[in-house]
Structures are given as structure tokens and as C-alpha cells.
Design a protein that fits this description.
Helix content is about 15%, strand content about 60%. By secondary structure, it is an alpha+beta fold. An eight-stranded antiparallel barrel has the order 1-2-3-4-5-6-7-8.
Length: about 190
Amino acid sequence: MMKKTIVFIGLFSITFFCVAQQESSPKKFNELKLNAFNLAVYQAIDLSYEYVPHENHSFGISLFFKINGVDGVDTYLRLEVQDHRNFSITPYYRRYFSKKYGKGIYLESFGMLSSGKYANYIFDNILNSNQIKNYTNFSAGLTAGVKWVTKSGFIIDSYFGLGAPILNNGEFDSGVTHGGISIGYRF
């Protein structure tokens, strides 16, 4: 009799815990997104994964890399310094200000480890020197954005942010941008 009571209480507790978990948390809390803006404008793949454990905050990571290889420096432009990021990995934390689960207006803090090439043009009345150098740096910054999620899970995420370099291995110490228009799916 005692064994049956313990088994019954155990099964009841497990069932109650599972039902309570289903009612208090959403069924979909993972997101995969592709930044369509970076694909169209920069010819780069920018994929993001976001985990939404709570209605007001989420954690994510994005991976950016050029499709056309790593040369990336346009020597015909006569700019003093021109940056061409070829790769970056960007972990981020988002805080949502909507009462709806993981959507609406948000602020994001991010860290970006990036590498690429930059051209340093030295001017004296004419173009005297053109130095193309590799760089790797780590930047931190803030982003503001808005995310729409349909009932079926389709996502449109629009955001823009700026970051400042914290660590770098070369002379290139320009700030970074983090933004775009991403489309994706919540599952």
C-alpha cells in the first residue's frame, strides 16, 4: 500500500510539474534568422540564433562572413581609411519592452569579434601610398530595434547599433556597426 501511494504521489507531482511548465512558458523559444540587408548590400551571409527563455529578455549569437572571399578592399576609392569586414562573431543580450513574448521594441548590448582588411591611403597632393593591412578587433556596443513575430512563427527583425573598439591588433581602430533587417522563424 505504501509503495502504491509513493508511486501515485510521484506520478501526480511529475504530471502537475509538466502541466505547470507548459502553461507558464511558450512552446517556441528558439529563433533562426538571416540578415537580408547584409546579403543584398554587402554580399555577406549573416546568420543569427536567438534563445528567448523569458518574455522580456533573450540571448543570441550571429555569424557574419563574406560570400566573395576575403579580398574586399576597393583600391579605386580615394578614402583615407576604408574598412572591409570579412568575418565577425557577435554574441548579444536583448531586453524587450513589450508585454508580448520576445517581440516589440528592444535594446541590445553586444560584443563583436571581427577581422578583415583595410586600406590606408596616404595623401600628399597626389596618392602617394596605398597600404592594405589585415586587422582583428573586439568591440562592444548598443543596438536598438524592433521585432515582429507572427502567430505561425515568421519573424522580421529590424535593428541598428554602434560599437567602439576595446581590443585590436593593428592601427585600425574605427568603430563598428551592427544592424540590418533579418527574416527568420521561431520554433
